[in-house]
Amino acid sequence: MNIYEKSKQVIERSYADIHIGDTSEIIKTITNEDIVAFATLTGDVNPIHLDEEFAKTTFFKGRIAHGMLTASFISTVLGTQLPGTNTIYLSQNLKFKAPVKIGDTITAMAEVIEKRDDRKLIKLRTNLINQDQKVVVEGEAMVMKME
Questions:
Q1: Which among 65, 33, 60 is positioned nearest to 46, based on CA atoms?
Q2: Kind of pairing between the strands at 135-145 and 87-96
Q3: pLDDT for 37-57, tens place per residue?
Q4: Would the CA dihedral through 76, 78, 84, 89 be positive or negative?
Q5: Are 43 and 15 within 8 A, CB to CB?
Q6: Cβ of 7: how many Cβ atoms within 10 Å?
Q7: Is 2's pLDDT higher than 70?
Q8: pLDDT at residue 88 greater than cutoff 90
Q9: Are the beta carbons of 107 and 48 closer than 8 angstroms?
Q10: Bridge partner residues of 114 (DSSP)
Q11: How far is CA 135 from CA 45, 55, 70, 98, 138, in A?
Q12: Which one, of 107, 87, 102, lies nearest residue 38 by Cα?
């Protein structure tokens, strides 16, 4: 499925249709190609991400995905699922709890934890877990919903 086809799957929700406790998630298996593309796009060519021989000598004993690559899937959830279209990303805090390696399947989850009706602000818990149900990234986001 190409990007254009994926854009047809974006969810449109009004601010009034979003409630505390609402959740959404996306699932992604991290590939070597993802890591190389992210390094190419951002210029972050740290050998921990790209050089297996170097990475074997580190604490992680192998290559790991860029933390911001994995965290970027939070943006995917927020912009396409919950709250969905017409969402302005205002802030995000993150704690990187565990490495993500090639072949790991991560689930990026968002849960509405607070709403501020006067400005249509929504605070969401934003966590990523791996295939072993281990939290690899935890955080909170603040967004504004534009109607």
A1: 65
A2: antiparallel
A3: 999 999 999 999 999 999 999
A4: negative
A5: no
A6: 10
A7: no
A8: yes
A9: no
A10: 123
A11: 25, 22, 12, 7, 7
A12: 102
